[in-house]
Amino acid sequence: MSTMPAGIITQPQRLHNGMIYAFSHRTLGKLGRLILTDVPGRGMQISAEAEQGNFSDPQYLKRLETLSQVIQTLLDALPGENPPMPDLVALKQRASLYQRFINVQDAGEMEQFARGLNSQEQTLLFEVIADNVSTTMQTQDFGSTYGIVQRENDLRRLLAR
């Protein structure tokens, strides 16, 4: 059982179908969000988002570790079987791959990015994209959803060549 780290500040925001909890830390700053939504016929959907940052920054890694501990503590308190948070190595891999995808500036960069992905990275990236689309749909951020889906379609076309 995880324990909540000291210094956590929680800011709840009600959604029409759930809640968003934004977390920050008194000394580390913004950490990320936990999004809980009711999906009719399927139960509760749980998503987590970390604040963006640079993995070479030790403070960013500390924020990720702290967010992971906060979310795991909350998941442990929820009823039912909830999967554990991925370890920091897996989080870094997922976030780094997604950040590279999001930061592609144009079609030429997207083609170069696509050529550099191995099959495992492709599979992981499409999982992360699906998770992010699901999260943006939960929070009704339709502009972000459209942009992500458009990028995903561009990437899929390039990979199909």
Describe this structure in words.
With 161 residues, the chain is of the alpha+beta class. It has 2 domains: 1-85, no CATH class; 87-161. The chain contains 5 helices and 4 strands, in the order E-E-E-E-H-H-H-H-H. The chain has helices at residues 58-77, 88-102, 107-115, 119-138, 142-160; strands spanning 8-15, 18-25, 29-39, 43-50. Strands 1-2-3-4 form a 4-stranded antiparallel sheet, sandwiched between helices. The longest helix has 20 residues, at 58-77. The mean pLDDT is 85.
SSE map:
Blueprint (H helix, E strand, L loop, with lengths): L7 E8 L2 E8 L3 E11 L3 E8 L7 H20 L10 H15 L4 H9 L3 H20 L3 H19 L1
Antiparallel strand pairs: 1-2, 2-3, 3-4
| Total beta-strand segments | 4
Order of helices and strands: EEEEHHHHH
Main β-sheet, in a few words? 4 strands, antiparallel
Distance between the termini: 48 Å
Structural class: alpha+beta
Biggest β-sheet: strands ordered side by side in the sheet: 1-2-3-4
**Roughly how many Å is the radius of gyration?**
17 Å
Overall pLDDT: 85
The percent range for strand residues is 15-25%
> Could you estimate the helical fraction of the residues in percent?
40-55%
Q: Please state the overall shape, judged from the principal axes of the Cα atoms.
A: globular
Domain module tally: 2
Low-confidence stretches: none
Helix count, DSSP H or I runs of 4 or more residues: 5
Provide key terms for this protein:
4 strands; 161 residues; 5 helices; single chain; 2 domains; 4-stranded antiparallel β-sheet; alpha+beta
